[in-house]
Amino acid sequence: MISVNITNLDSIMQKIDKAAEGLNLDDCVNKAEEMATSQLKAACSWAPKAASHIGPTSTLKGKGYSYVSVGLGGNAPFDSYKNAYFHNYGYNLVYFGHKTNRYIDMHKQWFDNAVQQLKAPISRLMRAEIKKKLEGAL
Predict the structure, then answer these.
(1) Calculated CA dihedral for residues 84, 85, 86, 90, nearest 10 degrees
(2) CA 110 from centre of chain
């Protein structure tokens, strides 16, 4: 029989638990929020008025978690960013109150595509920031 004996595993786990307990990851979440905001604004460069309303829409902080939602709107009036909202889904053109047979899909799914492109870089950023924090705490 071949076996491996790992000693002091409990003390290592206790150190990691203790280090993780005292970590403040708010700055990591803020960096991710800044990265998401800048990338989404770049993706919405075709609508600068709407792009100016991209930012954090809600944040939640509690014991052991921190959450930020980045998107269109926030407290801004809907009229100021509705063009970007409707372009994400596409729409039927109404011209001077008359329906047309034209379907506008010029920037369809721009927001969803930008979010998909953000997943990997934000994940890498968060891993690197958390790793730095843990290395500093241990």
Answers:
(1) 90
(2) 15
Please name the residue that has the structure tokens 């730095």: 132
Two tokens, residue 101: 């047979």
Each residue of 52-82: pLDDT tens digit?
999 888 888 877 677 888 888 878 888 888 8
Round the average pLDDT of the chain to a whole number and report it: 83
| DSSP code at position 120 | H
User: The whole model's pTM is what?
Assistant: 0.75
Tokens of 67: 């959450």
Please state the length of the chain: 138
Say if residues 84 and 72 touch (Cβ distance below 8 Å): yes
Instruction: Give the dihedral sign, CA 91/95/97/98.
Output: negative
Distance, C-alpha 111 to centroid of its chain: 12
